[in-house]
Amino acid sequence: PTGRGKVTGIYFDPWWYPTPYSRRIFRERGIDLPCAVPPGNPLNYMGKFKITLSHKTKKGAIYRIHGANYPKRVGKRVTGGCFAMFNDQGLELARTIRVGTEVNILP
User: Which residue, 72, 107, 83, is CA-closest to 7?
Assistant: First the structure.
């Protein structure tokens, strides 16, 4: 979604809680994801930080800015709608902003 919103949470070394849809897609690829993927696990796509946003999909899922364990994925359409950043740059951002910071997503 585009438009104004705000940061609703900032987390370091976050767990990833894949949706049932994500778990099904991974299962089709031969990977059985747990309901919760701990920090540091190669299957944890949140990287070193997670910033949650107030923006939501039509189905109610929230958008995030998060790290990337695989730097080649940054800047590509490979997430379910999240913004992936290099871990070092994202950590700097996450340490600089606060919950409530305004975010404006442009088309």
Answer: 83
